[in-house]
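Thread: quick sanity check before group meeting

JM: Hey all, I'm pulling together slides for Thursday and realized we never actually wrote out the predicted structure for the chain we discussed last week. Dropping the sequence here so it's in one place. If anyone has concerns about the input, flag it before I start.
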Amino acid sequence: MKHSTKKIVSLFLLAFLPLVAKAQCAMCRAVLESGDNNAVAEGINNGIVYLMAIPYILVGVIFYLVYRKMRTPKTS
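JM (edit): ok, ran it. Output follows.
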């Protein structure tokens, strides 16, 4: 594995696999804080994080494929 590839993989892991990730929109937070069920709040919170991560992963894969396509030498 090239040194630059290791850097990219490390950056990807640091960016998308945090130890603790919490995200909520203002409306979800208001509704969930008014209730007493913490399991529902945790489930909503995890769902928001997963929904947020998918577009970033897709864009990263597309950029990687374009980068790889541009770097491959043309043979004729």
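AS: nice. The mean pLDDT is 77. The two ends are 27 Å apart (CA to CA).
JM: adding both to the slides.
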